[in-house]
Amino acid sequence: MDSLVESGWQVYTMLLSKCAYACICLVRLILVCGVVHRIGLLWPLRACCFRSGSISNIITALEFLLEALVYVWHMNFVDFQLACIGSFIVHETVFFLSGLPYIFLERTGLLSTYKIQTKHNTPEAQGKCIAWLLFYHSCVNFPLMLFSYRVFKFMGMRSSFPLPSWKVVSAQILFFFIIEDFVFYWGHRILHTKWLYKNVHSVHHEYATPFGLTSEYAHPAEILFLGFATFIGPALTGPHLITLWLWLVLRVIETVEAHCGYHFPWSPSNFLPLYGGADFHDYHHRLLYTKSGNYSSTFVYMDWIFGTDKGYRKLKALKET
Ligand SMILES: [Zn+2]
Ligand SMILES: [Zn+2]
Protein backbone atom coordinates (compact mmCIF):
# COMPACT_ATOMS: atom_id res chain seq x y z
CA MET A 1 0.00 0.00 0.00
CA ASP A 2 2.95 2.31 0.86
CA SER A 3 4.37 1.96 -2.65
CA LEU A 4 0.91 2.65 -4.06
CA VAL A 5 0.59 5.86 -2.02
CA GLU A 6 4.15 6.80 -3.05
CA SER A 7 3.42 6.31 -6.76
CA GLY A 8 0.14 8.21 -6.32
CA TRP A 9 2.10 11.07 -4.72
CA GLN A 10 4.62 11.03 -7.59
CA VAL A 11 1.80 11.31 -10.14
CA TYR A 12 0.23 14.09 -8.07
CA THR A 13 3.47 16.12 -7.94
CA MET A 14 4.03 15.48 -11.66
CA LEU A 15 0.51 16.77 -12.40
CA LEU A 16 1.15 19.84 -10.23
CA SER A 17 4.33 20.66 -12.14
CA LYS A 18 2.49 20.12 -15.46
CA CYS A 19 -0.30 22.45 -14.27
CA ALA A 20 2.29 25.08 -13.33
CA TYR A 21 3.77 24.77 -16.82
CA ALA A 22 0.26 25.07 -18.35
CA CYS A 23 -0.18 28.32 -16.35
CA ILE A 24 3.09 29.64 -17.79
CA CYS A 25 1.78 28.81 -21.28
CA LEU A 26 -1.45 30.64 -20.51
CA VAL A 27 0.53 33.72 -19.49
CA ARG A 28 2.45 33.42 -22.78
CA LEU A 29 -0.88 33.25 -24.64
CA ILE A 30 -2.04 36.42 -22.91
CA LEU A 31 1.25 38.10 -23.86
CA VAL A 32 0.84 37.01 -27.50
CA CYS A 33 -2.72 38.40 -27.48
CA GLY A 34 -1.23 41.62 -26.07
CA VAL A 35 1.32 41.81 -28.92
CA VAL A 36 -1.43 41.08 -31.45
CA HIS A 37 -3.46 43.83 -29.82
CA ARG A 38 -0.59 46.30 -30.02
CA ILE A 39 -0.14 45.72 -33.72
CA GLY A 40 -3.84 46.33 -34.19
CA LEU A 41 -5.06 42.84 -35.05
CA LEU A 42 -7.34 42.40 -32.04
CA TRP A 43 -10.00 44.73 -33.41
CA PRO A 44 -12.00 41.92 -35.09
CA LEU A 45 -12.30 40.24 -31.67
CA ARG A 46 -13.51 43.43 -30.01
CA ALA A 47 -15.87 44.15 -32.87
CA CYS A 48 -17.27 40.62 -32.65
CA CYS A 49 -17.81 40.66 -28.90
CA PHE A 50 -19.05 44.16 -28.26
CA ARG A 51 -20.58 45.69 -31.37
CA SER A 52 -22.91 42.83 -32.10
CA GLY A 53 -24.06 40.02 -29.82
CA SER A 54 -25.03 37.54 -32.52
CA ILE A 55 -23.99 33.92 -31.99
CA SER A 56 -22.03 33.73 -35.25
CA ASN A 57 -19.90 36.70 -34.18
CA ILE A 58 -19.21 35.15 -30.80
CA ILE A 59 -18.17 31.94 -32.57
CA THR A 60 -15.81 33.99 -34.76
CA ALA A 61 -14.34 35.53 -31.62
CA LEU A 62 -13.86 32.10 -30.04
CA GLU A 63 -12.22 30.84 -33.23
CA PHE A 64 -9.85 33.80 -33.08
CA LEU A 65 -8.86 32.94 -29.50
CA LEU A 66 -8.49 29.26 -30.40
CA GLU A 67 -6.19 30.14 -33.28
CA ALA A 68 -4.05 32.22 -30.92
CA LEU A 69 -3.90 29.24 -28.54
CA VAL A 70 -2.88 26.83 -31.34
CA TYR A 71 -0.24 29.34 -32.44
CA VAL A 72 1.23 29.45 -28.92
CA TRP A 73 1.30 25.70 -28.44
CA HIS A 74 3.03 25.23 -31.79
CA MET A 75 5.73 27.62 -30.69
CA ASN A 76 6.36 25.58 -27.53
CA PHE A 77 5.60 21.91 -28.14
CA VAL A 78 5.98 19.17 -30.74
CA ASP A 79 3.03 17.02 -31.89
CA PHE A 80 3.97 14.06 -29.68
CA GLN A 81 4.03 16.18 -26.50
CA LEU A 82 0.67 17.74 -27.33
CA ALA A 83 -1.09 14.51 -28.28
CA CYS A 84 0.24 12.37 -25.42
CA ILE A 85 1.17 14.56 -22.43
CA GLY A 86 -1.39 17.24 -23.42
CA SER A 87 -4.20 14.67 -23.74
CA PHE A 88 -3.20 13.13 -20.39
CA ILE A 89 -3.35 16.54 -18.65
CA VAL A 90 -6.70 17.37 -20.30
CA HIS A 91 -8.08 13.99 -19.19
CA GLU A 92 -6.83 14.20 -15.58
CA THR A 93 -7.99 17.81 -15.15
CA VAL A 94 -11.50 17.23 -16.49
CA PHE A 95 -11.89 13.86 -14.75
CA PHE A 96 -10.95 15.02 -11.24
CA LEU A 97 -12.60 18.45 -11.54
CA SER A 98 -15.90 16.89 -12.62
CA GLY A 99 -15.74 13.88 -10.26
CA LEU A 100 -14.52 15.35 -6.94
CA PRO A 101 -17.59 17.60 -6.34
CA TYR A 102 -19.77 14.45 -6.04
CA ILE A 103 -17.54 13.16 -3.21
CA PHE A 104 -18.06 16.53 -1.51
CA LEU A 105 -21.85 16.23 -1.96
CA GLU A 106 -21.89 12.69 -0.58
CA ARG A 107 -19.78 13.58 2.47
CA THR A 108 -21.66 16.77 3.37
CA GLY A 109 -25.15 15.50 2.52
CA LEU A 110 -25.77 18.57 0.37
CA LEU A 111 -28.52 18.13 -2.29
CA SER A 112 -29.27 14.70 -0.79
CA THR A 113 -32.89 14.88 -1.99
CA TYR A 114 -31.54 14.26 -5.49
CA LYS A 115 -29.42 11.24 -4.46
CA ILE A 116 -30.59 8.12 -6.32
CA GLN A 117 -29.66 5.60 -3.59
CA THR A 118 -29.94 6.00 0.17
CA LYS A 119 -26.63 4.16 0.77
CA HIS A 120 -23.38 6.12 1.21
CA ASN A 121 -19.74 5.29 0.51
CA THR A 122 -17.29 5.50 3.42
CA PRO A 123 -14.33 7.95 3.16
CA GLU A 124 -12.03 4.86 3.16
CA ALA A 125 -13.84 3.42 0.11
CA GLN A 126 -13.60 6.78 -1.67
CA GLY A 127 -9.88 7.10 -0.78
CA LYS A 128 -9.16 3.58 -2.04
CA CYS A 129 -10.86 4.42 -5.36
CA ILE A 130 -8.75 7.60 -5.80
CA ALA A 131 -5.46 5.82 -4.95
CA TRP A 132 -6.10 3.06 -7.49
CA LEU A 133 -7.23 5.60 -10.10
CA LEU A 134 -3.95 7.52 -9.82
CA PHE A 135 -2.07 4.26 -10.21
CA TYR A 136 -4.15 3.02 -13.19
CA HIS A 137 -4.12 6.40 -14.95
CA SER A 138 -0.33 6.57 -14.87
CA CYS A 139 0.38 2.88 -15.56
CA VAL A 140 -2.46 1.91 -17.94
CA ASN A 141 -4.21 4.98 -19.41
CA PHE A 142 -1.01 6.90 -20.17
CA PRO A 143 0.70 4.00 -22.04
CA LEU A 144 -2.62 3.52 -23.91
CA MET A 145 -2.44 7.18 -24.99
CA LEU A 146 1.15 6.68 -26.17
CA PHE A 147 0.06 3.70 -28.28
CA SER A 148 -3.07 5.36 -29.69
CA TYR A 149 -0.98 8.41 -30.75
CA ARG A 150 0.83 6.21 -33.31
CA VAL A 151 -2.53 4.99 -34.68
CA PHE A 152 -4.10 8.49 -34.78
CA LYS A 153 -0.99 9.87 -36.48
CA PHE A 154 -1.03 7.07 -39.04
CA MET A 155 -4.67 7.91 -39.80
CA GLY A 156 -3.83 11.58 -40.41
CA MET A 157 -4.29 13.33 -37.05
CA ARG A 158 -2.77 16.84 -37.02
CA SER A 159 -2.52 19.71 -34.61
CA SER A 160 -1.60 22.49 -37.05
CA PHE A 161 -3.48 25.11 -39.06
CA PRO A 162 -6.02 25.32 -40.60
CA LEU A 163 -8.37 24.47 -37.75
CA PRO A 164 -11.36 22.26 -38.65
CA SER A 165 -14.75 23.94 -39.11
CA TRP A 166 -17.40 23.60 -36.38
CA LYS A 167 -19.49 21.49 -38.79
CA VAL A 168 -16.66 18.94 -39.19
CA VAL A 169 -15.96 18.93 -35.44
CA SER A 170 -19.67 18.40 -34.57
CA ALA A 171 -20.14 15.64 -37.17
CA GLN A 172 -17.02 13.79 -35.97
CA ILE A 173 -17.95 14.08 -32.28
CA LEU A 174 -21.47 12.75 -33.00
CA PHE A 175 -19.94 9.84 -34.94
CA PHE A 176 -17.52 9.12 -32.04
CA PHE A 177 -20.43 9.01 -29.56
CA ILE A 178 -22.51 6.66 -31.74
CA ILE A 179 -19.70 4.22 -32.52
CA GLU A 180 -18.43 4.29 -28.91
CA ASP A 181 -21.91 3.49 -27.60
CA PHE A 182 -22.27 0.58 -30.05
CA VAL A 183 -18.87 -0.99 -29.26
CA PHE A 184 -19.26 -0.33 -25.52
CA TYR A 185 -22.69 -2.01 -25.47
CA TRP A 186 -21.41 -5.29 -26.93
CA GLY A 187 -18.13 -5.18 -25.00
CA HIS A 188 -20.03 -4.56 -21.78
CA ARG A 189 -22.44 -7.45 -22.48
CA ILE A 190 -19.46 -9.76 -23.01
CA LEU A 191 -17.99 -8.56 -19.69
CA HIS A 192 -21.23 -9.68 -18.00
CA THR A 193 -20.65 -13.33 -18.94
CA LYS A 194 -19.80 -15.50 -15.91
CA TRP A 195 -16.00 -15.89 -16.20
CA LEU A 196 -15.26 -12.34 -17.39
CA TYR A 197 -17.53 -10.83 -14.75
CA LYS A 198 -15.91 -12.83 -11.95
CA ASN A 199 -12.32 -12.18 -13.05
CA VAL A 200 -12.50 -8.74 -14.68
CA HIS A 201 -15.71 -6.69 -14.60
CA SER A 202 -16.55 -7.31 -10.90
CA VAL A 203 -13.84 -4.73 -10.06
CA HIS A 204 -15.93 -1.96 -11.66
CA HIS A 205 -19.04 -3.27 -9.87
CA GLU A 206 -17.29 -3.21 -6.47
CA TYR A 207 -19.11 0.10 -5.97
CA ALA A 208 -22.84 -0.77 -6.03
CA THR A 209 -23.48 2.87 -5.05
CA PRO A 210 -21.37 4.65 -7.66
CA PHE A 211 -19.95 8.18 -7.34
CA GLY A 212 -18.45 10.17 -10.25
CA LEU A 213 -14.86 8.91 -9.91
CA THR A 214 -15.89 5.23 -9.95
CA SER A 215 -16.59 5.68 -13.69
CA GLU A 216 -12.95 4.82 -14.46
CA TYR A 217 -12.39 2.41 -11.57
CA ALA A 218 -11.96 -0.91 -13.37
CA HIS A 219 -9.64 -3.87 -13.91
CA PRO A 220 -6.67 -2.91 -16.19
CA ALA A 221 -7.90 -5.47 -18.77
CA GLU A 222 -11.26 -3.70 -18.86
CA ILE A 223 -9.59 -0.29 -19.22
CA LEU A 224 -7.80 -1.62 -22.31
CA PHE A 225 -10.86 -3.51 -23.60
CA LEU A 226 -13.44 -0.72 -23.25
CA GLY A 227 -10.81 1.99 -23.91
CA PHE A 228 -10.91 0.60 -27.45
CA ALA A 229 -14.52 1.87 -27.70
CA THR A 230 -13.37 5.41 -26.88
CA PHE A 231 -10.49 5.37 -29.35
CA ILE A 232 -12.10 3.58 -32.31
CA GLY A 233 -13.85 6.72 -33.64
CA PRO A 234 -10.73 8.94 -33.69
CA ALA A 235 -8.65 5.97 -34.93
CA LEU A 236 -10.94 5.62 -37.96
CA THR A 237 -11.09 9.32 -38.83
CA GLY A 238 -7.72 10.81 -37.74
CA PRO A 239 -9.25 14.06 -36.41
CA HIS A 240 -7.61 17.38 -35.55
CA LEU A 241 -6.15 17.45 -32.02
CA ILE A 242 -8.75 20.07 -31.04
CA THR A 243 -11.52 17.60 -31.98
CA LEU A 244 -9.77 14.80 -30.08
CA TRP A 245 -9.53 16.91 -26.90
CA LEU A 246 -13.15 18.04 -27.19
CA TRP A 247 -14.20 14.38 -27.55
CA LEU A 248 -12.09 13.43 -24.53
CA VAL A 249 -13.65 16.23 -22.44
CA LEU A 250 -17.25 15.38 -23.43
CA ARG A 251 -16.75 11.63 -22.97
CA VAL A 252 -15.22 12.09 -19.49
CA ILE A 253 -17.99 14.49 -18.40
CA GLU A 254 -20.61 12.06 -19.73
CA THR A 255 -19.22 8.98 -17.96
CA VAL A 256 -18.65 10.85 -14.68
CA GLU A 257 -22.24 12.13 -14.84
CA ALA A 258 -23.54 8.60 -15.54
CA HIS A 259 -21.83 7.39 -12.32
CA CYS A 260 -22.47 10.47 -10.17
CA GLY A 261 -25.29 8.89 -8.14
CA TYR A 262 -27.53 11.99 -8.37
CA HIS A 263 -30.45 12.78 -10.62
CA PHE A 264 -30.94 16.55 -10.61
CA PRO A 265 -33.72 18.58 -12.30
CA TRP A 266 -30.91 19.94 -14.51
CA SER A 267 -29.45 16.51 -15.40
CA PRO A 268 -28.92 16.20 -19.18
CA SER A 269 -31.17 13.10 -19.40
CA ASN A 270 -34.15 15.41 -18.64
CA PHE A 271 -33.48 17.40 -21.80
CA LEU A 272 -31.55 15.22 -24.27
CA PRO A 273 -33.66 12.60 -26.05
CA LEU A 274 -32.08 9.10 -26.17
CA TYR A 275 -29.49 10.06 -23.50
CA GLY A 276 -29.13 7.57 -20.60
CA GLY A 277 -27.50 9.47 -17.74
CA ALA A 278 -27.12 8.78 -14.01
CA ASP A 279 -30.49 7.16 -13.27
CA PHE A 280 -30.05 4.73 -16.21
CA HIS A 281 -26.53 3.59 -15.25
CA ASP A 282 -27.12 3.63 -11.49
CA TYR A 283 -29.74 0.90 -12.07
CA HIS A 284 -27.02 -1.19 -13.78
CA HIS A 285 -24.76 -0.93 -10.70
CA ARG A 286 -27.28 -1.74 -7.98
CA LEU A 287 -28.60 -5.00 -9.49
CA LEU A 288 -27.11 -8.50 -9.67
CA TYR A 289 -24.83 -8.88 -12.70
CA THR A 290 -27.14 -11.44 -14.34
CA LYS A 291 -30.21 -9.21 -14.01
CA SER A 292 -28.80 -5.73 -14.45
CA GLY A 293 -29.30 -4.78 -18.15
CA ASN A 294 -28.71 -1.12 -19.22
CA TYR A 295 -25.35 -1.95 -20.82
CA SER A 296 -24.97 1.16 -23.01
CA SER A 297 -22.61 3.97 -22.06
CA THR A 298 -24.34 7.06 -23.47
CA PHE A 299 -27.64 6.38 -25.24
CA VAL A 300 -30.68 4.23 -24.42
CA TYR A 301 -31.61 2.90 -27.85
CA MET A 302 -29.22 -0.11 -27.96
CA ASP A 303 -30.74 -1.53 -24.74
CA TRP A 304 -34.23 -0.80 -26.08
CA ILE A 305 -33.55 -2.52 -29.44
CA PHE A 306 -32.06 -5.64 -27.80
CA GLY A 307 -34.51 -5.72 -24.89
CA THR A 308 -31.92 -5.35 -22.13
CA ASP A 309 -33.69 -2.42 -20.47
CA LYS A 310 -36.99 -4.22 -19.71
CA GLY A 311 -36.41 -4.38 -15.94
CA TYR A 312 -35.42 -0.72 -15.80
CA ARG A 313 -38.42 0.45 -17.82
CA LYS A 314 -40.77 -1.67 -15.68
CA LEU A 315 -39.36 -0.11 -12.49
CA LYS A 316 -39.60 3.39 -13.96
CA ALA A 317 -43.25 2.83 -14.96
CA LEU A 318 -44.00 1.54 -11.44
CA LYS A 319 -42.42 4.67 -9.87
CA GLU A 320 -44.44 6.96 -12.11
CA THR A 321 -47.82 5.37 -11.20
ZN1 LIG B 1 -21.43 -3.79 -15.87
ZN1 LIG C 1 -20.42 1.72 -14.43
UniProtKB/TrEMBL annotation:
Keywords of the record: Membrane, Transmembrane, Transmembrane helix
InterPro entries attached to this UniProt entry: Fatty_acid_hydroxylase (IPR006694), Sterol_Desaturase_Related (IPR050307)
A UniProt-annotated Pfam family: FA_hydroxylase
Compartment(s) of residence: Membrane
Chief location category: membrane
Membrane-spanning segments: 20-43, 55-74, 80-105, 129-149, 169-187, 223-248
Residue ranges constituting the Fatty acid hydroxylase domain according to the UniProt record: 174-308
UniProt record similarity statement: Belongs to the sterol desaturase family.
Name of this chain's protein: Fatty acid hydroxylase domain-containing protein
Organism: Brassica rapa subsp. trilocularis
Record lineage: Eukaryota, Viridiplantae, Streptophyta, Embryophyta, Tracheophyta
